[in-house]
């Protein structure tokens, strides 16, 4: 990854290519995969044959002189798999915590995720909070201001999105891309040792911090 | 050795078990023993060998070589053991540290062992033939040189370091090679993709060669973890898709096929050598899972569906040495490959699945603790296990087949019903046709019912009948005829040579008999019942002719007369027969015969003459019997012409 993400083309005309790992967290059925499918394939409920899975997808966005390649890792939202999440977000440079604006419980879960990420993930991880299903505003249970306030307190990016209407979907990814550090040294060093720690430390998943050497 | 290790999914479980019978799985490379039993076995062997040698450590080495050649241990085990030996020596007997010379010797030995005649490496080279043909000679040479130094480096460190240190060394070597490609002028005109491919090649080549040293080394507890994980999965074999909230539609045959393919893929991981090859097995497995989820979910599956499905597959597959494989990939796969890309994601998921299985509790399956404990202890077997699902699958298949058969039967039944209706119509039509035809025929030839042609009772029509006595009285007639025929014969035989009494010629007989009777009676002029009979007979014949004319059907009347005649004829016949049968008895007792004869008998000329009897008495009683036979048949004219002559000739025959 160190070689690929920060590799500069010999001719140098295209600028930098940065590759980032982004994890999706959130209760099941809040629309994590719909959000990604909308972002990556522009699809919602109109799947093409080629799309066999929405768990691992990649998408490239262009920012000024930098090409940012997102590698999006979906996670299982069920409560029973909660303890496995550190294995996913370890080494991730960005995370989107998704909740459903029509369900207060999912917002509660989202807060737990944010807390956990701040405690256990890499310190410079970019966290975005996405209130999905914004098209169902008439069934709203989580107020926009409440979430906005929470996001500001914790230094998160916040947007209300709708995978159905594509509202704010590209925007939230772009915002993340802008906020990510483009210095290849940072991203490269962050990942080099972590792949190997993936399994070795699985017995002590709750151990805080990551292991940059 | 390698070829033996190729995976075969159709080996009996019993064949895989340790030959010592300890219940663990054995390994062909360890002579069919499990690792522990093999360790013990080796130790015993070694003790035996060292006992015979004076020199402690060099002797041991020699002994080892003997073992190798004699017993033919696997090279892998040899190295494993050497490694373990060295470690213990270093710890316990630092005094006996070997010289660097011997170390180098061993290393070169190992090197030769690793790279001599391994078809897999040759195959790997062939796979990358295209790549090397596209790059310059110098690049190829440099890559091979790097591989050599890589190997030397690893082998040097293999003796000393722990597995984690070794992993660090390998990872550093990957980075060194990557940097070398970036920095060296040899590689400058290569594209990034080619460089990546070269990096992959180096990794695969080195790891395939060093696999036997680096995979599941004895210094680690990987094997114990493998066994405990294997037992754990075996314990959890009752967990089904429902427990995991996994949306696998097991009743669909395509889904079932994909499940089996995914299971085969993940089991096949153990047989791959290079970490990246193992990784691609995982990727294949996961892609199949996505395909099967697509069937059930109806769209691209998310991680919410994928992870439970992967856990399910791992539980059902129970892949061999899963933990060792995961550790091996983690340690020796190029970290940059593992941290990103599809392979990295799926590998992370696999690690998650394994972790979930290891820490699985009642809570994580959303079931009461008691129930979970019951399942775990095997007290209760869930009804809806994978097997029962498969059975249901089979049942469904069967049902479909039977439904098809039923459909077929139904079709046939309908066809049959149609046929029956058609037949019914045809029959009705036929009935009508026949009725029409009959009506037509009737119209053409109207039915005129004529009086029934009953055989008329001749007697009732005849007014004279009542006055007549019963026509035939056989009892009375019998003796008469019995005596008469002879007289009749005499007259008759002169007239015609036909046999006088035969059943077939009865009507003729009747006529021929009746006429002489009448004749004789008339001659005698006796008012006996016979006379009346004779008159009756005559009138009868006359009556018949008269009736014939009345009815105007001569044939029928003849039939009638004949039918009426039969009892009479029978009476004649039976009487005749009786008379013939009685005859010999009469002749045996002539005196009695004379006495019992009817009064009419006296009037008739007796055919039995004393002349004859007188002559016969000179002979035996047989003579009488012999005589009687030609009389009965009446075949020979000589006999018929004269009974006495016959007797004479017979007697003359006897005399001669």
Task: Describe it.
- The complex is a heterodimer of chains A (213) and B (656).
- By secondary structure, chain A is α/β, with parallel strands linked by helices.
- Chain A has one domain (16-179): 3-Layer(aba) Sandwich (Rossmann fold).
- Helices cover 35% and strands 21% of the residues of chain A.
- Chain A is built from 8 helices and 6 strands; from the N terminus they run αβαββαβαβαβααα.
- Chain A has a 6-stranded mixed β-sheet with strand order 2-3-1-4-5-6, with helices on both faces.
- In chain A, strand 5, helix 5 and strand 6 form a beta-alpha-beta unit.
- Among the domains of chain B are: 105-214, Serum Albumin, Chain A, Domain 1; 221-382, Glutathione S-transferase Yfyf (Class Pi), Chain A, domain 2; 386-439.
- Chain B is built from 31 helices and no strands.
- The radius of gyration of chain B is 63 Å and the shape is elongated.
- Chain B starts with a helix and ends with a helix.
- The interface between A and B is large, with 47 and 50 residues.
Number of helices of chain A: 8
Please identify which CATH superfamily of the domain at 221-382 in chain B we are dealing with.
Answer: VPS9 domain
Taken as a percent bin, the fraction of beta residues of chain A is: 15-25%
Return the CATH topology of the domain at 221-382 in chain B: Glutathione S-transferase Yfyf (Class Pi), Chain A, domain 2
End-to-end distance of chain A: 16 Å
Number of strands of chain A: 6
| Estimated structural class of chain A | alpha/beta
Q: Give the helix level of chain A as a range of percent.
A: 25-40%
What is the mean pLDDT of chain A?
A: 80
How many beta-strand runs of chain B? 0
pLDDT < 50 runs, ≥5 residues of chain A? 1-13, 185-213
* CATH class annotation of chain A: Alpha Beta
Q: What's the CATH H-level superfamily name of chain A?
A: P-loop containing nucleotide triphosphate hydrolases
In terms of per-residue confidence, which ranges of chain B show pLDDT below 50 for 5 or more consecutive residues? 1-8, 52-74, 88-100, 481-532, 543-594, 612-621, 629-656
Radius of gyration of chain B: 63 Å
CATH class of the domain at 221-382 in chain B: Mainly Alpha
Dominant shape of chain B: elongated
Order of secondary-structure elements of chain A: HEHEEHEHEHEHHH
Q: In which range does the helix fraction of chain B lie? A: over 70%
Distance between the termini of chain B: 120 Å
Structural class of chain B: mainly alpha
InterPro entries (chain B): DUF5601, VPS9, Vps9-like, VPS9_dom_sf, Znf_A20
GO cellular component, one term (chain B): endocytic vesicle
Protein name (chain B): Rab5 GDP/GTP exchange factor
Biased composition (Basic and acidic residues) (chain B): 57-67
């Amino acid at each position: 990854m160190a070689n690929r993400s920060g590799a500069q083309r010999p001719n140098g005309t295209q600028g930098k290519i940065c590759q980032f790992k982004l994890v999706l967290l959130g209760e099941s059925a809040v629309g994590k995969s719909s959000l990604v499918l909308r972002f990556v394939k522009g699809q919602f409920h109109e799947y093409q044959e080629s799309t066999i899975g929405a768990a691992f997808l990649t998408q490239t966005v262009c920012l000024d002189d930098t090409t940012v390649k997102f590698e999006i890792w979906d996670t299982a939202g069920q409560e029973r798999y909660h303890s496995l999440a550190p294995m996913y977000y370890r080494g991730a440079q960005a995370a989107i915590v998704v909740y459903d604006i029509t369900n207060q419980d999912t917002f509660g879960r989202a807060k737990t995720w944010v807390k956990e990420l701040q405690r256990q993930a890499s310190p410079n991880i970019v966290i975005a909070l996405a209130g999905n299903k914004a098209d169902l505003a008439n069934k709203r249970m989580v107020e926009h201001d409440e979430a906005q306030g929470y996001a500001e307190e914790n230094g998160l990016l916040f947007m209300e999105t709708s995978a159905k209407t594509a509202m704010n979907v590209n925007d939230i990814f772009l915002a993340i891309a802008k906020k990510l550090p483009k210095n290849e040294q940072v991203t490269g060093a962050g990942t080099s040792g972590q792949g190997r720690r993936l399994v070795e430390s699985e017995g002590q998943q709750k151990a805080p911090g990551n292991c940059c050497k | 050795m390698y070829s033996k290790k190729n995976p075969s999914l159709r080996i009996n479980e019993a064949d895989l078990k340790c030959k010592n019978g300890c219940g663990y799985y054995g390994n062909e490379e360890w002579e069919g023993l499990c690792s522990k039993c093999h360790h013990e076995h080796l130790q015993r062997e070694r003790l035996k060998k060292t006992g015979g040698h004076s020199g402690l450590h060099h002797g041991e080495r020699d002994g080892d070589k003997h073992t190798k050649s004699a017993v033919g241990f696997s090279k892998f085990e040899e190295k494993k053991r050497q490694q373990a030996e060295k470690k213990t020596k270093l710890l316990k007997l630092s005094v006996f540290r070997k010289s660097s010379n011997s170390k180098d010797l061993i290393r070169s030995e190992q090197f030769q062992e690793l790279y001599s005649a391994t078809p897999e490496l040759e195959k790997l080279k062939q796979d990358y033939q295209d790549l090397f043909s596209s790059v310059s000679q110098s690049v190829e040479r440099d890559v091979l040189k790097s591989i050599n130094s890589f190997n030397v480096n690893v082998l040097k460190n293999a003796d000393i370091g722990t597995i984690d240190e070794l992993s660090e060394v390998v990872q550093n070597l990957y980075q060194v090679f990557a940097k070398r490609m970036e920095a060296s002028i040899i590689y400058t005109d290569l594209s990034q993709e080619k460089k990546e491919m070269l990096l992959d090649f180096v990794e695969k080549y080195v790891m395939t060669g060093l696999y036997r040293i680096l995979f599941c080394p004895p210094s680690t507890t990987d094997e114990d973890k493998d066994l405990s994980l294997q037992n754990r999965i075996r314990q959890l074999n009752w967990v089904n898709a429902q427990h995991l909230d996994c949306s696998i539609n097991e009743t669909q045959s395509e889904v079932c096929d994909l499940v089996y393919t995914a299971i085969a893929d993940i089991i096949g991981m153990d047989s791959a050598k290079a970490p990246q090859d193992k990784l691609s097995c995982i990727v294949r497995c996961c892609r199949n899972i996505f395909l099967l989820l697509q069937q059930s979910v109806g769209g691209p599956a998310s991680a919410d569906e994928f992870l439970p499905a992967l856990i399910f597959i791992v539980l059902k597959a129970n892949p061999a040495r899963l933990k060792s494989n995961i550790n091996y990939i983690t340690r020796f796969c190029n970290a940059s490959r593992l941290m990103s890309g599809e392979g990295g994601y799926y590998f992370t998921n696999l690690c998650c699945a394994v972790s979930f299985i290891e820490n699985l509790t009642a809570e994580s399956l959303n079931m009461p603790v008691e129930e979970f404990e019951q399942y775990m202890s095997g007290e209760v077997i869930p009804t809806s296990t994978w097997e029962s699902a498969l059975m249901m699958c089979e049942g469904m298949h069967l049902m479909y087949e039977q439904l098809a058969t039923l459909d077929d039967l139904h079709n046939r039944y309908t066809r049959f019903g149609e046929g029956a209706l058609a037949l019914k119509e045809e029959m009705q039509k036929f009935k009508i046709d026949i009725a029409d035809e009959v009506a037509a025929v009737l119209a053409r030839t109207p039915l005129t019912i004529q009086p029934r042609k009953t055989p008329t009772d001749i007697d009732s029509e005849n007014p004279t009948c009542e006055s007549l006595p019963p026509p035939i009285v056989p009892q009375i007639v019998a003796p008469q005829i019995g005596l008469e025929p002879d007289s009749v014969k005499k007259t008759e035989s002169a007239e015609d040579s036909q046999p006088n009494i035969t059943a077939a010629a009865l009507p003729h007989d009747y006529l021929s008999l009746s006429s002489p009777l009448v004749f004789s009676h008339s001659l005698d002029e006796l008012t006996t019942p016979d006379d009346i009979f004779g008159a009756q007979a005559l009138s009868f014949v006359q009556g018949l002719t008269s009736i014939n004319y009345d009815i105007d059907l001569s044939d029928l009347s003849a039939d009638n007369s004949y039918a009426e005649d039969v009892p009479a004829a029978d009476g004649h016949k039976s009487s005749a027969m009786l008379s013939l049968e009685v005859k010999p008895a009469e002749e045996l007792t002539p005196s009695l015969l004379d006495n019992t004869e009817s009064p009419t008998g006296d009037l008739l000329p007796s055919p039995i003459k004393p002349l004859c009897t007188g002559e016969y008495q000179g002979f035996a009683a047989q003579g009488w019997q012999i005589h009687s036979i030609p009389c009965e048949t009446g075949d020979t004219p000589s006999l018929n012409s004269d009974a006495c002559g016959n007797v004479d000739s017979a007697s003359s025959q006897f005399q001669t």
